[in-house]
Design brief:
This protein is an alpha+beta fold and about 450 residues long. It has two domains: about 40-85 and about 150-365, Thrombin, subunit H; about 365-450, Roll (Pdz3 Domain). The chain contains six helices and 25 strands. It is globular and about 90 Å long. Residues about 1-35, about 35-50, about 50-125 and about 285-290 have low confidence and may be disordered.
Length: about 450
């Protein structure tokens, strides 16, 4: 099967890379014969389109380990950072008993302590004057100092005016997600899976920090990288974000996420960069394409509705787009509950900005490809299962049976690692492929338009 074959299948698989902790074996589906740069896929959707997707029809069990659009339940351990909005929070039975028990305990202990305390106070009152009572103290003066540079507070103050909630509706459902302002003339960057439900005749409404709302329209989108750009018109005083450099990130570096989890707009969370260059695969539903990204992993709390929102460094610069989370199976039910488990994934901003610029300039995105079928090599690496005649891979001398173990300085552990590494680069880039037999082959990457249906 060739790389340009739009019917080429993509099997699901959990994110993997060197040294990474893997989900349980029963939660993974290995990739087989994954075509690099294929067209639309016939698979369950990877993403629960923005926070609430309703009326999307029956779900398909198994397949890709990502929650489909609108799915509230899944047999997969993965879910995206967008799911249906919550209802009234459920009270946990038994918690009331626990609280009551604690209250009784506090009363019992407090009663005994109160008696002793009263006795001591009485003695002290007789010899040391009036007891101190916090309730009698004046309220402190309001703080007037600004947030310290480099603090989470400072990042929140800087970025929050640029973050928007996106409410979407279309024939297949409705929901919400996040985005952030790129320009004063109204361009907003978000995830494809946030807006795809409204891409063909649907509606999008942007809600800003001050609560004002305005319609937005899709400028263009790229399912293969999960990037989309929407635009609002006639809105004054927009505050664009500052973009950072995702190539300069380090594991352990502090980051801040802002978005609209569970429709709670303007939510700020913080954490660290847990890992870099994490190959994360997200399959598609019928007509959708596979997304394989070389993601930033973070433990900053990301939940349904955070998708499309910014991940920023402590300078307040956006270094990623929050896109997906790993959700372990709920005990006893065999279902996935899409909530934060401390493992979230963001698209590196350096990759996103190239795609966003193409969409703004032309309305379309270009997919980087090499023109080869790839699969997991038994001993590690990406096996070249087939090469198209005249393709970048063929012109570079890659042949069927070659095993790629490294691209430039990036180790390649499997097929998804190769796909992710290629897609983070731009068409025309020259990259060195290191093969398992020790040879090095230089490949000039090609580019092809990305179909969106």
């Amino acid at each position: 099967m060739t790389e340009n074959d739009p019917s080429a299948p993509h099997d699901g698989g959990a994110p993997r890379d060197s040294g990474a902790q893997q989900p349980p074996e029963d939660a993974k589906t290995p990739a087989r014969g994954t075509p690099l740069g294929s067209g639309p896929q016939q698979q369950p959707s990877p993403w629960s389109a923005q926070g609430a997707a309703q009326g999307t029809g029956p779900q398909q069990p198994g397949g890709y380990p990502w929650t489909p659009p609108g799915a509230q339940q899944s047999h997969s351990p993965y879910a995206t950072a967008t799911m249906p909005p919550p209802g009234v929070p459920h009270q946990r039975r038994g918690s009331g008993r626990l609280v009551a028990g604690v209250a009784v305990l506090a009363l019992i202990v407090g009663g005994g302590a109160g008696a002793a305390g009263g006795y001591l106070t009485a003695q002290n009152n007789g010899s040391a004057g009036t007891a101190y009572n916090a309730l009698n103290q004046p309220v402190p003066a309001q703080q007037t100092t600004t947030a310290q540079p480099g603090s989470v507070e400072a990042v929140a103050q800087k970025l929050s005016p640029s973050v928007v909630e996106l409410q979407v509706a279309g024939r297949s459902g409705q929901g919400e997600g996040s985005g952030f302002v790129l320009s004063t003339d109204g361009y907003i960057l978000t995830n494809n899976h946030v807006v795809e439900v409204a891409a063909n005749g649907g509606q999008i409404q942007a809600v800003f920090q001050d609560g004002s709302k305005t319609p937005a329209s899709v400028v263009g989108r790229d399912p293969t990288t999960d990037i989309a750009v929407v635009k609002v018109s006639g809105v004054k005083n927009l505050t664009p974000v500052a973009l950072g450099n995702s190539d300069d990130l380090n594991v352990g570096q502090s980051v801040v996420a802002i978005g609209s989890p569970f429709e709670l707009a303007g939510t700020v969370t913080s954490g660290i960069v847990s890992a870099l260059h994490r190959p994360v695969r997200a399959g598609g539903s019928e007509g959708d394409q596979t997304t394989v990204m070389s993601a930033i992993q973070t433990d900053a709390a990301i939940n349904p509705g955070n998708s499309g929102g910014p991940l920023a460094n402590l300078a307040g610069q956006v270094i990623g787009i929050n896109s997906a989370i790993y959700s372990p199976q709920s005990s006893g039910m065999g279902q996935t509950e899409a909530t934060n488990a401390g493992i979230g994934f963001a698209i590196p901003i350096n990759q996103a900005r190239r795609t966003a610029q193409e969409i703004i300039d032309t309305g379309k995105a270009t997919q980087t490809f090499i023109g080869a079928n790839v699969s997991d090599a038994p001993q590690g690496g990406a096996l070249i299962a087939g090469v198209q005649s005249g393709s970048p891979a063929g012109q570079a001398g890659l042949k069927q049976g070659d095993v790629v173990t490294k691209i430039d300085n990036t180790p390649i552990n499997d097929a998804d690692g190769l796909i992710a590494a290629v897609r983070t680069r731009a068409p025309g880039d020259k990259v060195n492929f290191t093969l398992s037999d020790g040879r090095t082959v230089q490949v000039t990457l090609g580019g092809q338009p990305v179909p969106t249906n």
